[in-house]
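Job type: complex structure
Entries:
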Amino acid sequence: MPAVERASLRVRIGRQAAVLAALWLAGSQALAGGPLLVRSNGVPFAWGTGTINYRTDNGPLSPTVPEATAQARVIAMFDVWQGVPTSYISFSRVGFINSTGAFTDGDVSTLAEYDAVDADCAAGNQSPVVYDADGSIVAGLGMDNTSVIGFASPCTSNATNYLTGLIVMNGRFQDGLPSPGDIPEPAFDAAIIHEIGHFSGLDHSQINVNCMNPCGTDDLAGVPTMFPFLVSSTQASLSVDDMAWISRLHPRTSGGPTFAGTYGTLSGVVFFSDGQSHAQFVNVIARPVGIPQNRTSPVSVISGYRFRAIHGNPITGDTPSQFGSTAPGDIGLFEIPVPAGSYTIEVESVHPDFTDGSSIGPYQIAMPGTAPPPSVPVSVAAGATSSGNNVTLIGTPPRFDQFEGP
Amino acid sequence: MGTLLAERNGVVRSRLRAGLALMAMLGLPVTAPAQEGALTLPRNLEQLTDRAATIVRGHVASSHVELHPTLRGLHTVVVTLTVRETLKGLPSQSFTFRQYVWDIRGRHGQTVYRKGDELLLLMIEPSEYGLSSPAGMGQGMFRIARDAGGREVAVNGHANARLFDGLAPAQSQKGAALTAASRQLVGTHRQGPIEASRLTAIIRELVDAGR
């Protein structure tokens, strides 16, 4: 099949899967809006251009969900991400989880077997999708198996790319038993779709944070799958932010609509009130001009997303991170991949309640001062960068280094 | 761009239709936040307290990532707290636990436990492999900080959202056993920081009600 036809088919499949997932989801979550991890040169880690091969458990997801059904569902979940037309990211189920160490029977059902599989993932040998049919693995790992639905992450990388990743699905929520009670299949699958966003190298993103409380349908449509909380079933399918960032990390260059032929970049620096000192950890949102696109289709990033987050001090953490740039020019830098068009740029503090596991970006410090009004519209063409869209915060302290403390 | 616009608009329309249909059909459960990539179901404070074997408030004295001593494929973070207050479990001056780390950032030493942080932790019983974690993951881990008014406040990884759902006296025997002051907070709080002393008081009352 010619590449263009394959791409077209992939888009159609992905779109169907996305809609199907949304229909099943009763309140699921969302995908990503920025990189999970950034190299020391400021370039985000991503998966390589080849197909990402993953392997599934050869046991049931639960006593009521046999392996074949689980496998079909997992493939459909990966298809949601694979369906983004401007991203090269693609996934292939290449078989059952390989035997390794203490794991030999095909069904990851004990912690010793999980230990072996995790180690093999960390060694860069395989990307397993584990079905914890009765929650015993999650419990053995010391986690509350009546609350944890699943988790995922890349396992390891080389200097530039992720090599393997891991997904664990807790079958206790799909076993039909009263305790802890099932999650509707669509919601469960949507939760795992969100996890696949992390597996793919995406972090959380904050758009239309007003939807932490009841909000309108246009605003809900703009809430990304990678929003830290599940606030709406609309998060079961990818938002513009999700599609922009998966494409930015894994840009298609041929064989379909390309990233460069579709997206431009809005960049600038967020400054303290002095107009000179860079401000990191400020949420920057590009909103398309027009209604309802300004609410349904924004894209965001955290200022300084390339820059190192942990500097070896009591504020950010004692052990300096090996990740992220140390170039001073990156401290307040933002770069937002957006479909070609006209946008306003606005800034806001990361929601103070998004902490730890629900955090946005590499670290969170409240935005100093107050935000200026949104910018005048800025146009950007596909393949182009509109730079210098700087934002100066209002009423910040004259100048201070937030990492060194007051 | 035309292709993407069509795709995007289609997705948005589909999301809206699907969202409305599902909200009408099923009602929305959720705010399910992630803890280093883990999705969890919302749990209220009574459930978190019941689930916890140890509840302590203290400062992180040390935190480091290492492989599990016997399950050598598992990365773990070992955290020691200097205990200021024990609300459940045996009182002691320090509390150490070992938590599994799956997140690639955590495997490289970036965990949510930073030396000096003041935390209120509702920790589940360690597994037979000595692993533990906060009940409900981020829900059972509260950071203590001072607000603009100088009060010590606590907020968990779920922004304290739904913490008191189902705790009204009519819905919960333990809720009914709370003091009037606690019931007042339970009845009015929806989300956001809670004065630390009031939160610990409610936890103590819930623990006592379970005895």
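Summary: Chain A has a mean pLDDT of 85. The radius of gyration of chain A is 21 Å.
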